[in-house]
Amino acid sequence: MPSYLQTLPLHTITEVYGEAGLRDRFSREILRFREPDWRRLSTALALAGDLHRQDRRVREPVVNHLLRVTLRIMCHYEMDDADLLVAALMHDSVEDHPADLAGDGHADPAEAALGVLSAEFGPRVAELVRAVTNPVYDRGGDVHAQYRAHVVESLERHPAARVIKVSDFTDNGVGLIHTTGPKLRKLARKYRPLVPELKDLINRPDTPLKERIKQHITGQLDRADERFTAILQGHAVAARAS
Asked: Which UniProt keywords apply (predicted)?
């Protein structure tokens, strides 16, 4: 990989070098950590890669998303909290692969999976992952409204988890450019109402980010809101025209 890889935007690395490029960037960035934290981060990536090895989102492996979420926190949000970074790598694991983490036969697979993460990486990592893990929603109700209510309630109680969620949200928002058709409108309707809630949560005094980073994230959320609005307005115009 080129020596200037660390100067490239994360989505540029993805487009040009793919998963190998993101993994290389990650391996370079974690060299600044103490050896115990470096090893924990390497172990977390190996576990996440194994759990999600067959998972894809739109047009890429899920591990790319996990790496970008973590690298964004590390490089752009300037955070060296190893627990937070491990949780970022594992943030989809309990929701997507509880049985692969904890095995079959548990009355509550998600709780069992969180127990495995706690034993492997510590209770704080498990609690951070819990805070950004979606529960099973009532399919008879408005699933998107339930999702937003859960996110806000959970992040109210877990300031550090806000950092993972906003990086995840940012990555998902950028990913909309690769989505078309009805799914694009569905995702815009899901995410747009969450923008003001995230802006409020990120800018609270107890959110562990520097003020200039909060301002940067606020600007990103404003641009995401513009994108979601344009998608939904375009759909409304097309519907009237038809």
From this structure: Hydrolase
Count other C-beta atoms under 10 Å from residue 9's C-beta. 10
* pLDDT tens track for 61-92: 999 999 999 999 999 999 999 999 999 999 99
The predicted-structure confidence for 184-193, as pLDDT tens digits, reads as follows: 888 888 899 9
Contact 204, 156 (CB under 8 A): no
Helices (H), the chain: 10-29, 35-51, 62-71, 82-89, 93-96, 98-102, 109-121, 123-131, 143-157, 159-175, 182-191, 195-202, 211-241
CA atoms within 13 A on the CB side of 189: 13
Please check whether residue 204 is in contact with residue 158, taking contact to mean a CB–CB distance below 8 angstroms.
no
The gap from C-alpha 205 to its chain's centroid, in whole angstroms, comes to 22
pTM: predicted TM-score of the whole model, two decimal places: 0.93
